[in-house]
Design goal:
5-stranded parallel beta sheet; 277 residues; 9% strand; alpha/beta; single chain; globular
């Protein structure tokens, strides 16, 4: 596990979870309508319990996608086995504490299998489109926001669990970014993956954030210094314009940023005037 953020393209580590969790806590807030639905569901079905979040994607499209990426998708039995293992561990450690499974899946038969295995009263899930119905809704742009709300609700509810059982998935990743302290069980992973996903960050999230901001501003400055900065303002090249827009964003938001010191340090002579400030 690396101690410092050295690249944005690397396996998820405790440091990355802590960094992204810190950014989310300071800059991202769910819409009130979504937050209200999440809070109501949590209080009704999950509060005062030990919660195991389980994210299962087994639609054929997802399996094909994973195959193209050279990864093998776990079977339903693998998720059931992992859930039972964690439940047994909880009972050993926590005694009679009630355990609840929050299940997020793209297939209705997966929900039925979990209810049969663990009891319908012990498995909860949101009302959402699944299977062929979900595929049909995806083709209709009118339902886009509604489907997004459903996925986001699942993410936020999984993030409020004590454990998260999952495989390779952006949805699962966002869930434990919202809660960097959740205990992750990566079904396809090995011991090193478990250690990587459940380790404790060696750096404070604030320090990690400052490192990331300093790195980003440094990259943009290096790119700018390789070109004529004046010509960038009139250039049509998308990449050049993106650099300028990023720097403009830095300047506009400097006074609100948690990393004002890094933003201030990134200023160079003439840059403010060059960017129209």
């Amino acid at each position: 596990m690396e101690n410092k953020i050295s690249s944005y393209f690397q396996p998820i580590t405790a440091e990355i979870r802590a960094l992204v969790g810190y950014v989310i806590s300071g800059y991202i807030k769910p819409a009130p309508r979504v937050q209200k639905m999440v809070d109501t569901f949590y209080q009704s079905f999950m509060a005062e319990r030990i919660n195991i979040g389980v994210h299962v994607r087994l639609l054929e499209e997802h399996i094909e996608e994973m195959t193209i990426m050279g990864q093998k998708t776990p079977k339903l039995q693998d998720f059931l086995r992992a859930t039972k293992h964690i439940m047994d561990d909880i009972k050993t450690e926590q005694g009679d504490k009630e355990v609840r499974i929050f299940l997020a899946s793209d297939r209705a038969d997966v929900i039925a299998s979990f209810e049969e295995e663990f009891g319908k009263a012990n498995v909860v899930h949101t009302t959402a489109f699944r299977g062929e119905e979900m595929d049909k809704r995806l083709e209709d742009r009118v339902w886009g926001r509604h489907l997004g709300d459903q996925v986001f609700m699942d993410i936020l509810l999984m993030s409020r669990c004590d454990y998260l059982i999952h495989d390779e998935s952006n949805v699962a990743s966002v869930a434990y970014y919202f809660n960097p302290n959740i205990r992750s069980f990566f079904v396809s992973g090995d011991a090193s993956d478990h250690k990587r996903l459940n380790g404790q960050s060696r750096d404070d999230p604030v320090d990690l954030f400052r490192q990331a901001v300093a790195k980003e501003t440094s990259i943009n400055w290096d790119q700018l210094e390789k070109r004529n900065m004046i010509s960038l303002l009139n250039a049509s090249d998308d990449d050049k314009q993106e650099i300028v827009q990023t720097l403009r964003c830095f300047f506009r938001n400097m006074k609100w940023s948690k990393c004002g010191r890094e933003f201030a340090a990134s200023k160079r002579d003439g840059l403010s005037a060059l960017l129209g400030f």
